[in-house]
Amino acid sequence: MTRALILFAKAPVAGRVKTRLMPQLGAEGAAELYRRLLTHSLRQLSRAVVERRCLYGAPGPGEGELQALAARFGWDYRPQQGDGLGPRMHLAWLCGRSWGAVMKRCW
Length: 107
Known about the structure:
Blueprint: E1 4-9, H1 22-45, E2 52-57, H2 63-72, E3 76-79, H3 85-96, E4 101-105
Parallel strand pairs: 1-2, 1-4, 2-3
């Protein structure tokens, strides 16, 4: 069985990520923090000994940035599909379980 890793993430768009930190950091600061955390996660997880890595991006603005980050670290990119996080994770799992995927949610 092929070992694989699936990572779920949102695009680092101001006002859409790390919203609880916006009073302290502002919308742009919160988005930049998330961008750095996501980049760090992709860098660290790229060291995992697996045959396949796939970044599943939440639908919405900034999807191009997620695709670029995936390409930068040698990950496949797929858009999340389904209504709500649970169904999206389930569909990704159905797609990836034949790879032996492990799922992790990014911050």
